[in-house]
Amino acid sequence: MTQRETLQILGVTVIGSPSALLALFGIIPMLGYTPSERLVARCIQVSVVSGLVAALAILGVMLATGTRHVPIELGNWVVIPQEGQEGFHFHLKFVFDRLSVPFAILSFVLCGTVGAFARIYLHREPGFCRFFVFYAVFLLGMIISSLAGTIETLFLGWELVGLSSALLVAFFHDRPAPVRNGQRVWVVYRIADAAFLIAALTLHHLTGAGDFDAMIGEGAWPAGVASISPHHALTVGLLLLVAAAGKSGMVPFSGWLPRAMEGPTPSSAIFYGALSIHLGAYLLLRVSPVLAASLPLRIIVIAMGSLSAIFGAVASRVQTDVKSALAFASLTQVGIIVVEIGCGLHYIPLIHMIGHACLRTLQLIRAPSLLKDYQALEDAIGSRLSKNGTIWEAMIHAPQRAWLYRFSLERGYLDGFLDELFLRPFMRAFHWSDGMERRWTDFLSGEASRESDRVAPYGDSLEQDVG
User: Fold this and answer.
1) Are 94 and 216 in contact (CB under 8 A)?
2) Which of 133, 143, 162, 225 is deepest in the core (most CB within 10 A)?
3) Contacts of 277 (CB under 8 A, 6+ apart)
4) By C-alpha distance, which of 342, 163, 353 is closest to 274?
């Protein structure tokens, strides 16, 4: 067996292990069988360990042989011929290189850690199996996004991650707040995904394909050089920056980030502390040759990263719950990573992402028991523990202290910004479409619509939202 065949078998194993896990979790309930918690845990262990071992084997082969770029092509999804031209084609391609392999290994390690924790944390939870179905969707989406060699393949993984994120934010659907916050996440993701889709179509228009090699050159990452003009690089780069900002919760899309903590602690750890929040920065790192081709684009990236880092640092200091404080602390680090990418660095932001993801996962997993230990310590010493040396004490004589505190407490007023600009218009459009569909079906069936089927406009219930 040749080296290339070995790498392809290992690559298919990396991609196939989470796919098999999702297929298994999807098929078993259809057969009318409810798997036990022990069986679910065993399936997760087998899937994660097999994928992780295959990814580590690929890394070992690449280091031993000096290979830096291993593509695996699985054919075209769609081919649209054009007269006299090559035409458009949507290609299914995965790439193992110095960027994708470490991120895939990180995804397997952290998903395995959170999966083992979630088995105990959600023990006897009514939605135990449902949680791990969403978990399998997320794991598959992260692996596809990490290894994607074309923009449409990356979009597939991007959508799977977004879908599982929104569903897990609304995991406790017996309460209204998680459902509404899940809607917030989903609407913001729709904005980001729309920008991503427009960028993909623009790239197809410019190059006739969505292959990253057509955009960032044939060289292995990070040595590639953008093969499109600086003007086109600015256009595509800005669209991808909007997509990255929405996925990573950067300013001005930061309002949904603390609300996403409504989900179970394991999902908060893996999504908004470790992997999902870094996916936007990973996208920018993947297309870093495009950023290098346009100086205005790099300046905008640095400005957005700096603003997000400052906002996260200020907002995290006034949060009243540990998960929201950690969410904004994660935003601070993501902003710094984006600044590093905008400055033209490659390996430093990659190492920063890996280290920060591991640290934040452990912090969020520890958060529930930490609060209990903290309260026990206060009860033991008989007084509240005070925090010294905060930013507010340093500003004790500043006249802007009250305004800055209010600004931070209101989370930069970004909740209202998202509600007015995105959330309410989207929900009104959805409810209008729902109403028109009901009228049409009632007209065809000859029945009057029931009052119990009517849904109040989202804007009327938004003010009742808590958290």
Assistant:
1) no
2) 143
3) 247, 248, 249, 257, 271, 330, 331, 334
4) 353
